[in-house]
Amino acid sequence: MANIFLTICVCLFLGLSECQAGENNITESDSTPEPGCDTTTNSLWKQLGALEERLNVTVRTLEEKLDANEKKLAALNSTVTQGNKMIALWFPTFFVAFSAARPVMNGNVAAGQADLPLVYAHVVSNIGNAYNPITGYFIAPVNGVYYFSFTSYFWASEGATGGSLYQNGHKVVSWYGFSKVHDVSQSNSAVLLLRAGDAVNVRVWAGYQIGDNANRYCSFNGFLLFSM
């Protein structure tokens, strides 16, 4: 497009130069200019005007496409921002997970007249150090949704086994079993919405029992699903 414009400009210049030269060669007795000069000049001006219009149309078209692309880019940036927020929500920059088992014991242990908080002293993993193997409590480090599970074991005998998962002292889910002939294995789980500082632990009900041995059948596990 630029080459065409330049060519026309050169032609216009040459045409005007020829006309000027023709006018200079006209004698005083002949004051009539060459008939082709005005025609050539007008033609070149018309071509130049048409070219200018085409250039203006092209510029407007490019501006419209640029504006449309800028809007698409803004929408894409917004989508990326939302995606980053979702990634940050589902994949927090910190991680919390633990798994612990009861210490080695043989036979059943009975709770007294009060619930017996279980201490899972054998720590398998404790990412984030939110679980305390001395007290048996998990303390939520951040607001979020957490998953917990526990398992229990009871050697066949007189009595029964039963207990619950507690959140801030409130019973959430439980287990129960009884058999004089067969050993009883139980488990349960829950998804909890916790605030930072909330406490979760497992307790055997007053008057009930729990058993284990070196195989470590009794465990307490949990991890952060996502923060809020």
UniProtKB/TrEMBL annotation:
One Pfam family cited in the UniProt record for this chain: C1q
Span of domain C1q: 91-228
Signal peptide extent: 1-21
Keywords linked to the UniProt accession: Coiled coil, Extracellular matrix, Secreted, Signal
Keyword NAD set for record: no
SMART domains: C1Q
Coiled coil regions in record: 52-79
Subcellular location: Secreted, Extracellular space, Extracellular matrix
InterPro entries: C1q_dom, Collagen/C1q_domain, Tumour_necrosis_fac-like_dom
PROSITE patterns to which the protein is assigned, alphabetical: C1Q (PS50871)
Domain of life: Eukaryota
Protein's recorded name: C1q domain-containing protein
Source organism phylogeny: Eukaryota, Metazoa, Chordata, Craniata, Vertebrata
